[in-house]
Structures are given as C-alpha cells and as structure tokens.
Write a structure and sequence with these properties.
heterodimer, A: 203 residues, alpha+beta, Chemotaxis protein chec, seven-stranded antiparallel beta sheet, B: 172 residues, 60s Ribosomal Protein L30, Chain: A, globular
C-alpha cells in the first residue's frame, strides 16, 4: 500500500496505539526508577522504508539502535533509534543523574538504553496486541551503534526484505528537568500491516 | 533527535564530481569523477578499475542472487546480475584483462540470534565467484566484522578509501 493513501483518521488511530504503548512504558519506567518519567508521542507517520535515512539525517548518520524481531501473529521488526547525544542524555535521565554526566558510551549506558528500548517495545506491542486482539511479542533485543543506513539494511535482511513501509513513532522521554527525543520504528511486513489496520477498523 | 526532511551531508563532502551509488545500484564514470557508496552493512561494495582508461565502476550489492527474494526491485542489487553488467559497462565490450576489483562491506550489524542467515559473507562469496568467472582479480578487500563502511573510488590512481566510525580511514 502507499503510505500517502492513509487518511488523517487512520493516522490518528496509529498515533493512539503509540500513545497507549508510551503510557504503559512510562508507568513501568517510573516504577523502576522511583521517580516520574513521562513518555509522549508528538508525531506518528507512515513512510516508505527507503525514506527513513533521509528523515533521520542521512545514511551515514551515527546512531544507536535497538532491534527486536516481531514474533507471534504479526511478522516484521521494531527498531528504536537515537542519535549520539540522545543516547547519553537518555542514559543520564534513566539513571537519575545530572544531564551531561555521561561523556562516552560504555557498557552501562548501552545496557540502560537497551533496557529502556526493550520496555518501550514491549509496551507498544502490548497495546497493539490488545487493540487488534492479535498476539504480538518482541524477540531478543540487539544493540548496534553505527551508520543508520547500514543498521536499516541489517534490519531489512533480518526480516527478509519484506518490509516496504515503516510506522515512525517519535517518542519523547521527559522527567522534571530534561527531555530526550527518540524514534521508534514499527516495521510490519505488508500483510501484517494490512491485518493490523483492518483490525483497528481503519481500512 | 531531529527529524527532518533533508538528507544529511556525506563525509566525502560531495561536489559536482562525486557520483553517489545508492543501495542496489551501479555506476560507471571516468576521471576526475569519484564514486561513493555510503553505509555498507551486510551489503558489498564492488569497484572495477581500468588503469589505462582511468575509468571505473562501482556496484552496491545487497543479495547473492534473485533466488534470495520473492520481491521485485532493482535487478542490480544481486551479485549474479550486477557483476557481469558492471564489467560490461566498464569495458564497453573490449577485453576485460585490464580490470582489477576491490571489495568492501559484508559485515554483520546485529550479532547473536539475529544473524542466522550470515548474509554478509554469502554476499562476499557470491561476488568473488562472479569475479572469478569473469577472470577479474580481487587486488584488495576490507570485509567482514560488525561495523558499517563507506567506500570511495578515485579513478586516477584506482585508490579505494574505506571510511568507518570504528577504524577511521583505510586505503585499499
């Protein structure tokens, strides 16, 4: 399907799924950290996978990414993407430290970000599963820190080059003092996307 | 993270002489033009260079052969299609004996369970097989590992520059 065929109402429905997922993830993170963490979804778009590098600063942009394969009734994958600065900021935010404390990406920062991404991905899939009455489970999370283009290529290889459209869920983590923007990509294969939109009652 | 609608800058600092080869495409140019392909992961960048004509080509290979996917798309993303076509385009039907090949890419971006298929090395093997069928020697390569690479070919010297965040600049 062509992403431009989606109506505003259909995009709203996808946004709603994203917001519910973000809400659950925020609750879980707040419980873990003992301080309130908000997760907002300021923007949701459906776009062709080939346009993703252009939207996120070019194929050579250095990013951190967490990939999880989609298991259950739906096929595809999920990818959480953050730029260098965002990785350190999110790590500080989740470890209740002053913004700017983390100076370099070590195993602790990597683990923190992977963990947060895993919770966000699980919460999002739980929302998808609930609203569509389908089973949608995340596979094991893998972290990579490199060029965006190569990471996306790696992801499309894992899912067998079947994905043509990506749902971009712009995600904003915030606490009292700071906020960090990240991008969550939901990459269902074309059949799964149709089934999902159908179950949401919007096609 | 900023979400924009513009393509970010390349390290290669493109000018009017830079020809960017996108994923699954190939291109042939003459000096002073420079060929660049960004962000090779499990894909393989292949360059063929004719020292006498200062002419060369580059392909960005995604998969070994058309039997690896059911989906339509660019035919030049397959090693079995792109390599013969690239050799033909660089020589223009003349003998291929002056051509030399260099390779970069074929890495594994995600480890562990996500890497069952080993597509990076399969791509490298398919490219080498096609080159040996055409009797084109591979004179240099920078392949494997778990990091991304950008590849450039300069047509005056045949120099290939491989850039990565992990190891900086390598010359082949």
């Amino acid at each position: 399907m062509d992403p431009r065929d989606l109506t505003d109402m259909q995009l709203d429905a996808l946004g709603e799924v994203g917001s519910i997922g973000a809400g659950h993830a925020a609750t879980a993170l707040s419980q873990l950290l003992g301080t309130p963490v908000d997760i907002d979804v300021p923007d949701v778009r459906l776009l062709p996978v080939t346009e993703v590098p252009a939207v996120l600063g070019g194929p050579e942009n250095l990013v951190g990414a967490v990939y999880s394969r989609l298991l259950g009734d739906l096929g595809g994958g999920l990818l959480f993407v953050l730029d260098c600065e965002g990785l350190l900021q999110l790590s500080d935010l989740l470890r209740s430290r002053e913004p700017g404390t983390s100076k370099s990406l070590g195993s602790a920062e990597e683990a923190t970000v992977t963990h947060a991404a895993a919770m966000l991905i699980s919460a999002y899939l739980a929302a998808v599963a609930r609203l569509t009455e389908l089973s949608a489970l995340p596979g094991p999370e893998q972290f990579a820190f490199d060029m965006l283009g190569a990471i996306l290529e790696g992801v499309s290889m894992q899912i067998g080059l079947k994905v043509d459209n990506a749902i971009l869920i712009l995600t904003r983590f915030s606490t009292a003092g700071t906020s960090v923007d990240a991008a969550l990509f939901f990459l269902p294969d074309p059949d799964s996307l149709d089934v999902m939109l159908g179950r949401l009652g919007i096609i | 993270m900023t979400i924009s609608n513009t393509t970010g800058g390349f390290w290669a600092d493109p000018d009017e002489n830079t020809v960017v080869v996108a994923t699954g495409e190939l291109a042939v140019v003459v000096h002073p033009q420079v060929l660049v392909t960004p962000a090779l992961g499990s894909c393989v960048g292949v360059t063929l260079w004719d020292a006498f004509a200062r002419r060369g080509g580059m392909a960005h290979i995604m998969l070994p052969s058309p039997s690896d996917t059911r989906l339509g798309g660019l035919a030049d993303r397959f090693a079995t299609v792109a390599i013969p076509r690239l050799a033909e385009a660089v020589t223009g039907g003349l003998p291929r004996r002056r051509l030399v090949a260099k390779l970069a890419g074929g890495s594994t971006m995600f480890g562990g369970e996500a890497n069952i298929t080993g597509i990076g090395m399969r791509n490298v093997d398919a490219v080498k097989q096609q080159l040996s069928l055409l009797r084109i020697p591979v004179v240099a390569e920078d392949i494997g590992g778990n990091y991304a690479r950008t590849m450039e070919l300069y047509l005056d010297t045949g120099l290939v520059v491989v850039r990565s965040y992990r190891y900086g600049i390598k010359e082949l």
